[in-house]
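#lab-general

N.A. 3:47 PM
ok so I finally got the sequence cleaned up, no stray characters, all 318 residues accounted for. can someone with queue access submit it? mine expired

B.Y. 3:52 PM
send it over

N.A. 3:53 PM
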Amino acid sequence: MDKVAIVVVNYRTPWHLNLCLQSVFKHTQNFHLFLVQNSPDADSLRIGNMFKAKYPEQITIIHNPKNLGYVGGVNSAYSEILKYERVCLLNSDIIVTQDWLATLNEVLDKNPDVVQVWPDTNSHYPEKGFWRLVQRLPWGLNKLYRYRVSFGPPRSVKKDILFEAGQEFYWSYAGYCNLSRVEPYRQLGYILDPNIVHGYWDDFDQSYYLRQFGKVGISYRAYVFHFLNASFNQVQSINRSQKQELASLNGLYVMQKWQERLAADTKHFEPAYLQQLASGSEVIKTYLEFLHRKASDASFFSWIQTIPAKAVGEKFLG
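B.Y. 4:20 PM
back already:
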């Protein structure tokens, strides 16, 4: 059996999905791909079926008649994922490049104490003016941006480093693409916490859980190109402020979930230093907001445990 299960959740992004799967089958070896079609449109179904016909032994398609969100989509493949040694979560708006998965596997092969690794990506670094302009063009014209992957997209000066561990618990994580060992998930019953509505904060929660079993970090030698928010942009029933509210509520839920570990991780930090860190860390910023609201509102703690994000998040689903 192949070593890695790759899980791609698609929600009405057929154009991106086609580019993603083309790149995966061109640049990847020793994997089985699980394509999760959430409330699929006709074009997405056509793309999935086309790749299934071409690579029948390497792809399994899971059809969810309603949109389960990113978290629910990943978890719908849970029982299949357990059959593999490793799982790679890959967004549908990613274009992978040569040896991306081989490099991520190399990190885990050479470092038994590493439990999760993710690749470098263009979205970590500022674009030059021309490409920022292309991204702002009307849909259709801004598809030109796909050529960015062929024109030396921005990446880290550390591109020769095989692995760099995230030393601090609040270090930036990668929900767009990550490879992890499957063993830590066997007792959970899921890969991503089903109480995290749709997708915001699932990446931090996943990595923070995995840190109990080993190191997490980045391989600058592996590289993928990320378009950003392709699925979220398809949701017309929810506006920007509602998306921000959903992200905030998910974040507060995660802080409540991990509050004891977070308290231990921050106990040696002076309050002023934590405030300083908050300006550059969404994790610290949200944790401090959680502590403030918990201290100032007696009903807040019980309320946040009811997963109020579901009230907003339901507008994503259908």
